Amino acid sequence: MFSKMMESLRPSPIQQMAERSRVASASGQDIVDMTLGEPDFPTPHHIGEAAVRAIGDGQTRYTPINGSVRLREAIVDKFSRDNGIETSLAEISVGCGGKQVIYQAMLATLNPGDEVLIPAPYWSSYGDIVSMNGGVLKPIATRPEAGYALQVEDLDRAITSRTKWLVLNSPSNPSGTAYSQAQLEAFCDVIRRSRHQRFFILADDIYEHILFDERKFHSLARVAPDLKDRILTVNGVSKAYSMTGWRVGYACGPKALIDAMTKIQMQVNSHTSSVSQAAAVAALSGPQDEVVRRCGIFQHRRDLLLDAFAKIEGLHTPRPEGAFYVFPDVRRFIGKTKEDGSLISTDVDLAIYLLNAGVAVVPGSGFGMPGFMRLSYATSDERLKEAAIRIRDAFARLR
């Protein structure tokens, strides 16, 4: 009855654990939910006001498929101002979140058997988007002791004649790894030297404004302007501006690719909400001081959690450089037994065990790295402190 693709499509591990958390909370259990990658701040007031004005002004009709002219102009200005990328309205794609933009890029380019290189750990949706469109996910393993950063020699070995995309997400979901200009330049040197030149590079910059310790963000298309005709730079308003529900993502890239993505969107959903687009114009063009302030809060929360986790014996947590996640190594706790004598066999077992202890996390297997776990610290200091206590006590009970 259903397509073969449906047989391989798996539920999102993030949403699975979030639903377990909701069920536990509904039953009366106090849960510190650290599953979803969603800022706990409200959308800034001036952005909401812009949406209300748009409704009053009658901006409730169809827009161009690739987004309103005003929004694409704001995106062109943003790329120039923030990223040093010079682009044009014809090279901009606007969709219902960055996820749709990425999906359309893969659908427009992948043929059966084409490989997509992604450093692991990776955002869980990448793999499913690739497989849904006939591609083959080819993870490139990273190491916690290297901060989960992709290594040049590993990238060099991974590129083959079947490579169609390389995906670089910086700062990363789930690890918080952020690449320096020198690291990006080294990756580009590998790409230039490779005898395989038919693949694209997807730079997922959705967390660019959540970067810590005074690091400077670097865009791949600025670092390597000679590769610009192969780079799709994806971004959105969801994380930096707390607009997850508004569903606005965007990208700039080579016109031929953008045109192909537009043909697909024409048949899928035409365009994202006209009111959301008006709000996104206000986000990108308006004051940015609240974005900076909230980044400081996220850095404080990261430090709070790292300090607490450092006191938990056996828990190793590399220091994130951005985003709002930690991705600790929990392999020392797998293979241990619970108080009832049952075995913790996998990171999924461990996540369920922690849920029963009052903390909802996502197992690392959902991000291509079994034996790890992702925790979002987009919640209050008080709840983070409580989560750390519950995790410490739960791990102490294992034998």
Automatic annotation (TrEMBL):
KW Lipid biosynthesis (keyword) present: no
Highest taxon in the source lineage: Bacteria
First-tier enzyme category under EC: transferase
Region of interest (Disordered), residue spans: 1-23
Residue ranges constituting the Aminotransferase class I/classII large domain according to the UniProt record: 30-391
Keywords, in A-Z order: Aminotransferase, Pyridoxal phosphate, Transferase
Any Pfam family hit: Aminotran_1_2
Record's keyword annotation contains Transferase: yes
SUPFAM superfamilies in alphabetical order: PLP-dependent transferases
Any one Gene Ontology BP term: amino acid metabolic process
Entry cofactors: pyridoxal 5'-phosphate
EC number, UniProt record: 2.6.1.-
Single annotated GO MF: transaminase activity
InterPro entries: Aminotransferase_I/II_large, AspAT/PAT-like, NHTrfase_class1_PyrdxlP-BS, PyrdxlP-dep_Trfase, PyrdxlP-dep_Trfase_major, PyrdxlP-dep_Trfase_small
Family to which this protein belongs: Belongs to the class-I pyridoxal-phosphate-dependent aminotransferase family.
Protein name per Swiss-Prot or TrEMBL: Aminotransferase
